[in-house]
Amino acid sequence: MPAPPPIAIERFVKIYKTVPAVDGISFTLTPGSVTGLLGGNGAGKTTTISAIMGLTTPTSGKVIVLGAEMPRQRYQVLHRINFESPYVAMPMRLTIRQNLTVFGMLYGVPDLPSRIKELGEKLDLTDLLDRPTGKLSDGQKTRVALAKGLINAPELLLLDEPTASLDPDTADWVRGRLETYRRERNATMLIASHNMAEVERLCDRVIIMKRGHIEDDDTPGKLLSRYGRQTLEEVFLDVARGRGVEREAAQ
Amino acid sequence: MIPRESTFAYSPRRTGAMMLRYWYLLRSSWPRLLDLVYWPTVQMITWGFLQYYIMQNAGFFARAGGTFIGAVLLWDILFRGQLGFSISFMEEMWARNIGNLMMSPLRPLEFISALMVMSIVRLAVGAVPVTVLAILFFGFNLYGLGFALVAFFLNLMLTAWAVGIFVSGLVLRNGLGAENLAWSIMFLFLPLTCVYYPVTTLPTWLQPVSWLLPPTYVFEGMRALLIEKTFRPDLMLDALALNVVFFAAGVFGFLKLLQSARQHGSLLQSGE
Q1: For A39-71, how does the pLDDT look when each residue is reduced to its tens digit (9 = 90+)?
Q2: For chain B, which residues make up each domain, given as ranges?
Q3: Where in chain A is the domain with CATH 3.40.50.300?
Q4: Would you call A224 an interface residue with chain B, using a CB distance cutoff of 8 Å?
Q5: In CATH terms, is domain A7-218 a member of 3.40.50.300?
Q6: Interface contact flag, B265 A54, Cβ < 8 Å
Q7: What is the reported pTM?
Q8: pLDDT at B63
Q9: CA B24 – CA B150 distance, rounded (Å)
């Protein structure tokens, strides 16, 4: 029996009171793929990611992750998933080692001291492991959040603006680590980002959302070619400002 | 490969992870430790001197030695027990860490268990030194209550946890805007559970309400023990029966509010 897809979303609808945040989207991710989830504010990206993690119950439709329907069957797969976002903080008073120990225990990671040592080396955190997380720079905190995201060597990694507020050098370094992790583990990644350069570099598929709908879904190359643009940022602006359809028709 | 687990699995390791998290937090901050001891000490000393004064001037209270200090110490178990539970929970909200926990394999009952254990740890850090001070300052030995103290403690902690669990659910559902409830809700119990006076002091119409609250039985039991020198197991069993209902309602309320938070998408937005 073939393994279920990492993510299969079928006609997912989420309505908050009377406002539809996501309005009937469907997509499936293949194992080992890196997909960018783009869209302006209020497009429905966070709600979609939240439903994938089992934090939001769909109003209708299905969100199936690694074969488990979310959030009903979430405990069957949560130990195989992880999430990194600068908007969800790590406890500041705890040292990096303490934080990683707690999360490692929560995720049932075997041989935790070795895993923390390994992550410390890979993410250049070894010298910082015994410092309180709150006393680190933004770049260091992002690396700690990434270490937490990788503590259980997840098959599916969800990233929300993974390089937000980082300087270009640190952001480039983080992207490099993500590429390495994907290569080593054949992990599937879903990245919500406003950084188009990041999406172009990391993603082999891009889903563009607008007002709760999927406006477009293709490889970065095909999107550039179809919209007749040089960069994904231009494609994004075309979609956001409703110029995409006109340009396609004109071409 | 990490083994797959069933939906209802209970992991002592995950519960231990959360206890470890709160222990790291507690020992990393001396103001947090000081706060645990400071207020109970101030309260005990104030009420202790008041009782000392009244004993010198009123015959009845001379016989009722220790009822005020005993009431203060037992009230502190109830109040600090709930606060210890709620503060540990609130630390996750303040740290914006609740999203990390809710998307981890941590089960709600494991989370609740860890918070319950930590409320006892916090209570012990704060209450044990104060009970020693009560012996030294006023000659009141809470531990002299013996088995009765165990019954009082168990019943008060069950109520404290039930209230703490329910309030945590409210904060989870409504965000930090509901935080004030955690600090103030127990004060509603202060007049109604008759901490410092017998239930008969209340107006007749209010007495049935008082008897619906488990701590009322504990404070009546304490007065019976200190004034009449009688341990009332019937009161403790009544309190226990009510506590089972309170605790089940607290857990049920928490799970329902968590479910509602999932429906309203408030687990990632844990601000106000």
Answers
A1: 888 889 989 999 999 999 999 999 999 999 999
A2: 13-19+26-264
A3: 7-218
A4: no
A5: yes
A6: no
A7: 0.88
A8: 59
A9: 29
